[in-house]
Amino acid sequence: MAETTTVSERRGIPAAAFVEDVQIYLDQLGLDVNSTLAFLQERLQQYKIVEMKLLAQQRELQAKIPDIEKCLDIVATLQAKKGSGEPLLADFEVSEGIYSRARVEDSDSVCLWLGANVMLEYSCEEASSLLTKNLENAKASLDVLVGDLQFLRDQVTITQVTVARVYNWDVHHRRQKAAVVPSGTGEDA
């Protein structure tokens, strides 16, 4: 019977080992119960920090995906209106809460924000292709993040179970030692 079940890490997140036998686990670590509990609590804190970072990345991607989809819709609308001779009337945000109305005549290109205050002009076809690729990448990244978060939650659960098992083992071990001490020897405890 193995004393622990080995699990690999995922994208730099250390895996928690499920402890089958606490005594063997303590012997392997070479630590006493209090040091082991402190180590496990520190590991839980590390997991919480990683979880906060992953949740922030998830929120960013969840906000980014609708923006990319909206840009794709706008490019598709521009392509559909192209050649019809009918101008496109659009409201756009100039600043937070401030909008302006634009009249867009036939256009063969659009400008996209690349980030860091950089905007680049693309043909509608190139913009559509780039936005589609960005959307696919964002959705794939979101899927990976969701998997990482699930893995992390599993590691937190395993670590919490290990903390409880070590604590309970210690309580049981102390009770056994106390029961072994003979009574009536004349010594005060």
List descriptors.
189 residues, alpha+beta, Helix Hairpins, two-stranded antiparallel ribbon, disordered N terminus
Describe the structure.
The chain is an alpha+beta fold and 189 residues long. It has a single domain (19-164), classed as Orthogonal Bundle (Helix Hairpins). It is built from three helices and six strands, in the order ββααββββα. It has helices at 22-29, 33-81, 124-180; strands at 4-5, 18-19, 88-95, 98-104, 109-115, 118-123. The strands form three sheets. A two-stranded antiparallel ribbon has the order 1-2. Strand 3 and strand 4 form a beta hairpin. Helix 2 (33-81) packs antiparallel against helix 3 (124-180). Mean pLDDT is 88; it is low at 1-5.
User: Roughly what fraction of the amino acids lie in strands?
Assistant: 15-25%
| Tally of helical segments | 3
How would the global form be characterised? Answer: rod-shaped
State the strand order across the main sheet: 1-2
The string of secondary-structure elements, in order, is EEHHEEEEH
Whole-number average pLDDT?
Answer: 88
Q: What would you call the structural class?
A: alpha+beta
Catalogue the unreliable spans.
1-5
- Give helix % range: 55-70%
Instruction: Write the CATH fold name.
Output: Helix Hairpins
By CATH, the architecture is named Orthogonal Bundle
Quaternary state of the chains: single chain
